[in-house]
Amino acid sequence: MMIDWDAPVVQPFWCPIEAAMHPDAEQAERHAIAWVDQAGFCAMGNERALMIATGSADFYGRFAPRADLEPLVAAICWVYWGFAFDDAVCDEGPVSVRPAEFCARAAGVQRALETPGKRCFRDRYAAAMNDLGQMFRALASPVAVRRFVQAHRAWLWGVHWQISNRALGLMPSLDDYLTMRLHSAGGEPTFALLEIANAIEVPAREMYSPRVLALTEMAILVAALDNDRHSFARERQRNQTDQNIFTVLCHQGLPADRAVAEAVRLRDRVLCRFLRVRDRMGPASTELRHYLEDLGHGIVGNAIWGQRAARYRSLAKGHGVQGPTGVTHALIWTESPLDSADAPPIGVPSIGWWWEV
User: Fold this and answer.
1) Cα–Cα distance between 83 and 90 in angstroms, integer?
2) Residue 15 contacts residue 333 (beta carbons within 8 Å)
3) What's the pLDDT at 228?
4) With contact defined as beta carbons under 8 Å apart, do 186 and 155 qualify?
5) What is the number of other CB atoms lying within 10 angstroms of the CB of residue 163?
6) How far apart are CA 270 and CA 299, in angstroms?
7) DSSP for 173-185, written as a single string
8) From residue 317, how far is each of 70, 203, 259, 335 by CA, in Å?
9) Distance (Å, rounded) from C-alpha 256 to C-alpha 279?
10) What is the mean pLDDT of residues 11-26?
11) Which of 41, 69, 167, 211 is 20 to 30 A from residue 256's alpha carbon, by CA?
12) pLDDT classification of 44: cutoffs 50, 70, 90
């Protein structure tokens, strides 16, 4: 049966959170690109143009709009690195279908991040990651850096799960997909960067409370499902839609238009829950209030960035970048959610606890 996949890329976004942008994002972009050029991990073929097309400064300037310039630049450097590594190693290339080889490559990169001091690594991505680790240690508290290191490991573990499914030709269940996507989308280290970018350290008793853990996971999943919508056309052109919220739902027997609607309903219900829990937080430290505010900035900022980024308008593999980063076009919004029920979705027990905190 022929499936019409035009629907996912035109579905409107619901997000009542007020957006913000760092006033020095363009300056931060110049500094970050200079670091990328010096680090040398995007020196082959069209890699540099594709890296710039990610609009990483536009992306993270929306996550941390009040950060000081130097730690913001460091965070943006990692975002550029993350997109480059994701494209070259996770989604394409020989190890993207070889779990054992990816695991070894990812372990080397992770160890380069964990290792204090400047070291020599032959892998270009590991060498750049080692440099980023030193940058973070100079700017942030040991606790904030350690939280990022752990989040980074979780991301690589999620990608390994995704690559293992790809290698075996397995389509995960919806519940398994959501668990995997909480990690494989890269949202965990992206949000963990907020403490580094803002030079804050949320007290452990708050950061690891069930309520804040749930809010963090909800923000990650909303952004991940939005990214599934942003990237679907590009991934379809590159034959990378083996695991996407739409294809997962279709695999469960839903027609394409129903799968699109159900995916958006799930995303909107989670965002409604995020807003309800966040708005009932009660007393909190200054650091936690800042963190929670930027969780919201990240959700709406990701939605805006994804509709603007040249990365997602560069559809055909090997055809270069279509248009400059940040070209404005009409953003597609809606005033109300498709689903605002304050109850856990049926059939996805891995996230049901968010409705119990």
Assistant:
1) 10
2) yes
3) 92
4) yes
5) 25
6) 12
7) PHHHHHHHHHHHT
8) 34, 45, 26, 35
9) 35
10) 95
11) 167
12) confident
Phi, psi dihedrals of residue 333, rounded to the nearest 5°? -125, 160
Question: What SS3 state is found at 64?
Answer: coil
Q: Is 123 left (phi over 0), alpha (psi -120 to 50) or beta?
A: beta
Residue pair 70/32 in contact by the 8 Å Cβ criterion? no
Which residue in the block uniquely carries the two structure tokens 């580094």?
Answer: 196
- Residue 103, both tokens: 């695991």
Q: How far is CA 312 from CA 124, 127, 220, in A?
A: 25, 28, 19
Nearest to 351 by CA among 192, 169, 241, 225: 225
Q: Where are the alpha helices (DSSP H) in the chain?
A: 25-39, 47-52, 56-63, 69-85, 99-114, 124-139, 142-168, 174-184, 187-198, 204-207, 210-237, 245-251, 256-279, 286-308
CA 4 to CA 2: how far, in whole Å? 7
For residues 127 and 120, the answer to whether their CB atoms sit within 8 Å is: yes
3-state SS class at 333: strand
Q: What angle do CA 250, 166, 126 make, to 5 degrees?
A: 130
What average pLDDT does the chain have? 90
13 has which bridge partners? 333
C-alpha span between 8 and 288 (Å, rounded): 35
Cβ–Cβ contacts within 10 Å for residue 277, how many?
18
- For residue 25, give both structure tokens: 């994002």
